[in-house]
Design brief:
Layout lengths: L1 H18 L17 E3 L4 E2 L2 E2 L3 E4 L7 E3 L4 E8 L6 E6 L4 E11 L3 H12 L5 E3 L7 E2 L4 E5 L9 E8 L5 E2 L15 E9 L5 E2 L6 E3 L1 E5 L2 E4 L2 E14 L13 E6 L2 E7 L2 E2 L7 H4 L2 H7 L4 E2 L20 E3 L4 E9 L5 E10 L15 E3 L5 E5 L2 E5 L8 E3 L1 E4 L2 E4 L10 E6 L5 H5 L1 E5 L7 E2 L3 E2 L3 E6 L3 E7 L5 E4 L6 E2 L5 E7 L5 E8 L2 E2 L3 E3 L4 E5 L9 E10 L4 E9 L3
Parallel strand pairs: 18-26, 19-26, 40-47
Antiparallel strand pairs: 1-4, 2-3, 4-12, 5-11, 6-7, 6-9, 6-10, 7-8, 8-11, 8-12, 12-13, 13-22, 14-16, 14-19, 15-19, 17-18, 19-23, 19-24, 20-21, 20-25, 25-26, 27-30, 28-29, 29-33, 31-32, 32-38, 33-37, 34-35, 34-38, 36-37, 39-41, 41-45, 42-43, 42-46, 44-45, 46-47
C-alpha cells in the first residue's frame, strides 16, 4: 500500500510539473499593442529553425519595447546583419528574454552603447557583456524601440526566451503570450519515398508526389497507393494566424498507422547547435531544386534533432504483402487547430527489377574521412564529416569555372576551396576574388583570404565558383544637403553609399577631424549622423567619408557645410 501511495504521489508530481513546465504569469508582453505574428517559433528558415516569434509592429518603427520582467541587461550587440540591434535581459526565474531588430535602445542603455561605439570608433559593437546588475531593469520598463535593423527586414520585433543556464531556446508562447488563432494549417503537398532499393511505391522505386482531395473541412485524402518494403512520407504545410497573411510554420506534425502513433515532433524547444539538422528534417534535394520545403515524417540517419517524441521505427512504415494500412498525418498549430490527410496503402509484393544507372565518379566521399583533391590549379579539401553520407562527388574545372557537385546536398561542415593565382600580376590579384556563380546573373562574393600565390575560401555551399574581378570603387554622395551650403535647420546628415561589385567592407566618417557615429541602413544604402551626438564649435565644418569594398577599392568624399549649434 505504501508503495502504491508513493507511486501515486510521484505521478501527481510529474503531471503537475508537465502542466507547469514554464511559468505563464511571470512575464508581460514586450509590446503594448495586440500581438499579431509575422513569424512563429521553430518555423523553417534557410539552414536553421526560427529561434523566436516575430511580432508585427503595425508597419511602424519606434514603438516602445518593454522588459517582460525584472532583471538586468546581460548582453547587447549592434550588427549590420542577423539580429541588428539586440538586447538580452537575464531574469531571476532562470530565463533570458531577447529583443532584436531594434531601432535604438532605451534611455541610459543607448548612452552606454554609444559610449562604446565612440571608444572603438565603430558602428558595429560585437557582443557587449555588462557586469551582472550593472544595468538593472524593471518589468514594464522601456528598454528599446522597435525597428528593422539586421539586414533587409521589415519593421517587427523578434522576441525570444532562452534558458539562461543552457541557452536552449524555448517557444515564447509557452509563457502566456496570447495570440488570436482560429485558422487551421494548410496542407500544400505530399511526397512518398521508397526508402530502400527493394522498396516499391506504385511499382516504382522513385519518390512521388501524391495528389489529394478534400473530404470535409480540414480533412483530406489521397487515392490508394500500392507499396512494399520500408516507405516514408513528407509533407509541405504552412500555418496562418488571424490578422496576418504571413505563411508561418506549424507547431507539430504527427503520423499514425492504423491508429497507432509512429511519428511526432513539436517545436517547444531546441538548441542552436542542433538547428542545422533542419536540412535532414526537410527533403533538402527537393528544396534546392524547387524551393518547396517538405518535412519528412521519418527520421533519417545522422539527424540529431531533439524535437522528436516517442518515434516507432523512426517513423518508417514497413509495408507487408497482403496488408492494408491507413496512414494519417496530422499537422497542428500552437492553438490546437489541425488539419489531417489520410493515405490508404495496400501492401502488394512487386518482384519487378529496376536497373538504375549507378552514380560513380573518380571522387568518392567517405563521410567519416578527410578528402583533398586538386585539378588545374584548384584544390578542394573536405574535413571529416563534412558530408552526412557517402557519395560520389562531381569535381571539374573547365574554362576557369570550378564545378563542385550540385548545390542539392546539405553539408554538416564547411570545406576549403583554393585557387592557384601565381600566374596573375600583383595588380590583377589586388582586384580579384572568389565568386559563387550558382546564380548566373549575380555572382556572389565569397569571403576571400589571400596569400602570395593562393586565394582560398571556406564555404558550406556546393556548386560553381570562379575567380572574378572588381575594378569599381564604391559610390558616395550627399543626400540631404549640398557642399558649401548652410544647413542650420538640419538635425542629421544623410549620405548614400553603395558598391556594385563585392559589396562594402567598411566605412569611416569624421567631422572636423574627429570620428563620428554614422548608422548604416542597409536597405536604404545610406549612413546617417545625428547632430545631437556632438556639440559643434564654430560655423564652418568639414565632413570626410571613406568607403572600402571587399577587394580593397576605396573612395573618399569631402564636403564642407555651415551650421551653428
Amino acid at each position: 500500500m505504501k508503495l502504491l501511495f508513493t507511486l501515486f504521489i510521484t505521478f501527481l508530481a510529474v503531471s503537475f510539473y508537465g502542466q507547469q513546465k514554464h511559468p505563464t504569469k511571470d512575464f508581460r508582453n514586450p509590446l503594448d499593442i495586440p500581438t499579431v505574428l509575422a513569424g512563429t517559433f521553430g518555423e523553417l528558415r534557410t539552414n536553421h529553425f526560427h529561434a523566436g516569434i516575430d511580432i508585427k509592429t503595425q508597419r511602424k518603427e519606434g514603438l516602445n519595447v518593454y522588459a517582460v520582467g525584472d532583471g538586468y541587461v546581460s548582453r547587447i550587440k549592434v550588427a549590420l546583419w542577423g539580429y541588428g540591434k539586440v538586447i538580452y535581459v537575464d531574469h531571476p526565474n532562470g530565463y533570458t528574454s531577447v529583443y532584436a531588430h531594434l531601432s535604438k535602445f532605451g534611455n541610459g542603455i543607448e548612452t552606454y552603447v554609444k559610449k562604446r561605439q565612440y571608444q572603438k570608433e565603430r558602428y558595429e559593437t560585437g557582443n557587449i557583456f555588462p557586469k551582472k546588475g550593472e544595468i538593472p531593469v524593471k518589468k514594464g520598463q522601456v528598454i528599446a524601440f522597435t525597428g528593422s535593423t539586421g539586414g533587409f527586414v521589415a519593421p517587427h520585433l523578434h522576441y525570444e526566451i532562452r534558458n539562461t543556464k543552457t541557452e536552449k531556446i524555448i517557444n515564447p508562447l509557452l509563457f502566456g503570450i496570447q495570440v488570436k488563432d482560429t485558422i487551421a494549417p494548410k496542407i500544400k503537398g505530399l511526397i512518398v519515398y521508397p526508402l530502400t532499393d527493394s522498396s516499391r511505391v506504385n511499382q516504382h522505386n522513385n519518390k512521388s508526389l501524391l495528389g489529394f482531395k478534400k473530404i470535409k473541412e480540414h480533412l483530406y485524402t489521397t487515392n490508394r497507393i500500392t507499396a512494399s518494403g520500408p516507405i516514408g512520407f513528407g509533407i509541405n504545410v504552412y500555418d496562418q494566424l488571424n490578422g496576418a497573411y504571413n505563411k508561418n510554420g506549424v507547431y507539430s506534425i504527427e503520423m499514425r498507422v492504423n491508429g497507432h502513433k509512429v511519428y511526432h515532433h513539436n517545436l517547444e524547444t531546441f538548441s542552436f547547435k542542433e538547428s542545422k539538422y533542419i536540412n535532414l528534417l526537410i527533403d533538402y534535394t527537393h528544396y534546392a531544386a524547387y524551393k518547396k520545403k517538405f518535412q519528412r515524417t521519418h527520421k533519417v540517419e545522422k539527424n540529431q534533432l531533439k524535437i522528436y517524441k516517442n518515434l516507432l521505427h523512426d517513423g518508417v512504415v514497413h509495408v507487408k504483402n497482403g496488408f492494408n494500412y491507413s496512414i494519417e498525418i496530422i499537422v497542428s498549430d500552437f492553438a490546437g487547430n489541425s488539419s489531417t490527410v489520410k493515405i490508404p496503402v495496400k501492401g502488394v509484393q512487386n518482384n519487378a527489377i529496376f536497373k538504375q544507372k549507378k552514380d560513380t565518379t573518380a571522387y568518392k566521399i567517405i563521410a567519416g574521412k578527410f578528402h583533398k583533391w586538386s585539378k588545374k590549379g584548384v584544390s578542394i579539401a573536405f574535413p571529416k564529416n563534412t558530408f552526412y553520407n557517402d557519395l560520389f562527388l562531381d569535381f571539374d574545372v573547365q574554362d576557369s569555372i570550378v564545378k563542385i557537385h550540385e548545390p542539392t546536398v546539405p553539408l554538416n561542415k564547411s570545406y576549403t576551396l583554393t585557387f592557384d593565382v601565381s600566374k596573375y600580376s600583383e595588380k590583377e590579384k589586388s582586384q580579384m576574388y572568389i565568386a559563387n556563380i550558382n546564380n548566373k546573373r549575380y555572382p556572389s562574393y565569397q569571403n576571400t583570404r589571400k596569400k602570395k600565390d593562393k586565394f582560398y575560401t571556406t564555404t558550406k555551399t556546393l556548386g560553381k565558383f570562379t575567380l572574378a574581378t572588381d575594378k569599381q570603387k564604391p559610390t558616395i554622395y550627399l543626400k540631404n544637403f549640398k557642399s558649401e551650403k548652410w544647413i542650420t535647420k538640419h538635425s542629421e546628415i544623410i549620405v548614400k553609399i553603395s558598391d556594385k561589385g563585392t559589396g562594402i567592407k567598411s566605412y569611416r566618417a569624421t567631422l572636423d577631424g574627429a570620428w563620428i557615429l554614422m548608422e548604416y541602413d542597409l536597405k536604404k544604402k545610406q549612413i546617417v549622423y545625428q547632430f545631437k551626438d556632438k556639440e559643434l564649435i564654430g560655423a564652418k565644418h568639414l565632413l570626410k567619408i571613406e568607403v572600402e569594398d571587399n577587394v580593397g577599392n576605396t573612395n573618399t568624399l569631402n564636403a564642407t557645410f555651415y551650421k551653428k549649434q
